[in-house]
Amino acid sequence: MAQHSYDVVIVGGGAAGLSAALVLGRARRTVAVVDAGAPRNAPAAHMQGFLSRDGIPPADLLALGRAEVTGYGVEIVDGVVTRIEPGFVVHLATGRRLEARSILVTTGVRDELPDISGARERWGRDLLHCPYCHGWEVRDQALGVLGTHSGAVAHALLVRQWSDDVVYFAHGREPSASERAQLAARGIRIVAGEVAGLVVEQDRLVAVELAGGVIVPRSAVFIRPRNVAHPDGLLGGLGVDVDRDGLAVVDRDGRTSTPGVSAAGNVVDPRASVIAAAGAAATAAMAINADLVAADVRRSSSVPAA
């Protein structure tokens, strides 16, 4: 199929990718945003903490963003990137190829949920991960925190800020003596044993069921899921240095170890909120434009590379 050339191809059309596209479009760069249409926050009904857009459905934010960036000539490509050749040639599942001078990866992460009955169905609704995103909406309710992560106790201590009724479900991660003291200091009760599932009535979480059949009433439960860079293998295929969790390692401007490849958003920091991811991507976009300007200067003159 025909190959189209751009200054920048952005892989990932969430808030981070669209934020970068807005900056680059306004900088008069030719830009394509390739979006697979699977945003991390799709299960959530509303998005909180984004100044001037607090409470907006995530899909509505993306629709507004798309309308803004296309007004500056940015092309939105709905599709899946299968691989990127050095140079760069971006291959899509449809067979289409996009040629780019620079690549920005904003593909986010995939949340790996525990093998607990009801976890996938309640994810983003009343099985939650970020208290800053969802804490206000479940304030003063009976809350739980699942011990599925090494940072689960710290998570429980944080969640306590939104309710004085918080239970820590050990679920195989029994707290140490010092952690028990911290939980006690915050008035957080510890429930031992494996969690078997979430009890739902009339499409609402009402309790947590333990493996032995014990029922603990709860209105919402928080977890810290394991995060995996999405899609698998894309960063490695670009030769990008990643950390032990497979997330992109970048400098303060979003540049990776591979020249011409930048990354921003949750694929760098899974804990970044939507507004933080968008801000990091805007910073990366400005750096990308500066790098392209420097390359244009070198190409048009005898100025040596820095």
What is the element layout, followed by pairings?
Blueprint: E1 3-11, H1 15-26, E2 31-35, H2 58-70, E3 75-78, E4 81-85, E5 89-92, E6 97-105, E7 109-112, H3 119-122, E8 127-128, H4 131-134, E9 143-146, H5 152-159, E10 166-169, H6 177-185, E11 189-191, E12 195-201, E13 204-210, E14 215-217, E15 220-222, E16 226-229, H7 234-237, E17 261-263, H8 274-300
Q: What does the radius of gyration come to?
A: 22 Å
Would you tell me the structural class of the helices and strands? alpha/beta
The end-to-end span amounts to 37 Å
Order of helices and strands: EHEHEEEEEHEHEHEHEEEEEEHEH
Biggest sheet architecture: 7 strands, mixed
Query: So what's the overall shape?
Result: elongated
What is the helix content?
25-40%
- Count the beta strands: 17
How much beta, percentage-wise? 25-35%
- List the uncertain runs: none
Task: Determine the mean pLDDT.
Answer: 94
What's the total helix number? 8
